[in-house]
Inverse folding.
């Protein structure tokens, strides 16, 4: 039986977040430069979007470039920024036709002008689409985001008693999106690398040894099936869950 046919539509994660890792190692493994892996990774993004549309997941967040990634060799940073701009320009028309809304989270002011312009235009063009929301994390780190939220809240002059989890969430970059219920990381690393720390408080984690350029629809479905096989207790007991207390 195909994997997608085993997915239960009534128990889908609404939001899946992905740490797309292992492009460099994948390229090196075949004697190529690291950037070759980044190029190939675009294909995995296409496959992920296709799988999300097929399965009915409403939100996908992809970690494309972290705050810490600015510390990579300048040449690699430049190549990544160029690839990002070109990919967005190439893919946006077809994404728009498919009803995909593009959104970006991260420090847009730290991006090169061309990149910032491209993401603003892509968000504007696709803002009324509702089939799937594709969120790209660019120059993003969770600690940056959390500190920014703290600054906004302090500047607003709100009294401390009025600061709730909801109010805090509404000061984050992700204020318009539900929290991810499933977080996938490729490449075998078992870490979060400063991604969505607040939002993944109760997410299910799925790690695979496959490098990002090897990621495909089937692996996406496998992650969803793994998610659906787990009991999410949210602090309660197993007995409470089976009696749907
Ligand atoms: C993920 O692949 C892409 C980015 C972080 C931009 P890497 O470039 O981190 O590849 P590895 O982890 O070094 O193999
Ligand atoms: C995490 O990957 C960031 C992205 C996928 C964009 P890294 O390759 O930067 O993470 P570390 O440095 O191995 O933790
Ligand atoms: Mg990496």
């Amino acid at each position: 039986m195909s994997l997608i046919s085993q997915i239960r539509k009534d128990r889908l994660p609404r939001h899946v977040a992905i740490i797309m890792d292992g492009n460099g190692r994948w390229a090196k493994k075949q004697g190529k430069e690291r950037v070759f892996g980044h190029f190939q990774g675009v294909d995995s993004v296409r496959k992920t979007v296709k799988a999300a549309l097929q399965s009915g997941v409403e939100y996908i967040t992809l970690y494309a470039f972290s705050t810490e990634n600015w510390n990579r060799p300048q040449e690699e940073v430049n190549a990544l920024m160029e690839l990002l701009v070109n990919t967005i320009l190439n893919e946006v028309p077809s994404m728009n036709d498919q009803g995909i809304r593009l959104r970006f989270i991260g420090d847009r002011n730290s991006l090169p002008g061309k990149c910032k312009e491209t993401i603003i235009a892509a968000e504007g063009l696709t803002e009324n689409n509702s089939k799937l929301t594709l969120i790209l994390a660019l120059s993003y780190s969770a600690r940056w985001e959390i500190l920014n939220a703290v600054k906004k809240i302090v500047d607003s002059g709100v009294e401390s008693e009025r600061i709730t989890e909801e109010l805090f969430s509404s000061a984050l970059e992700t204020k318009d999106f539900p929290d991810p219920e499933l977080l996938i990381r490729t490449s075998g690393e078992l870490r979060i690398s400063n991604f969505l720390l607040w939002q993944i408080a109760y997410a299910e984690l799925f790690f695979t040894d496959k490098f990002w350029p090897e990621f495909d629809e089937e692996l996406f479905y496998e992650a969803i099936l793994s998610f659906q096989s787990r009991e999410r207790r949210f602090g309660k007991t197993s007995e409470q869950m089976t009696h749907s207390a």
Observations:
- The chain has one domain: 18-229.
- The pocket of IPE (ligand 1) is lined by residues 20-25, 65, 69, 80, 187, 212 (CB under 6 Å).
- The longest strand covers residues 132-140.
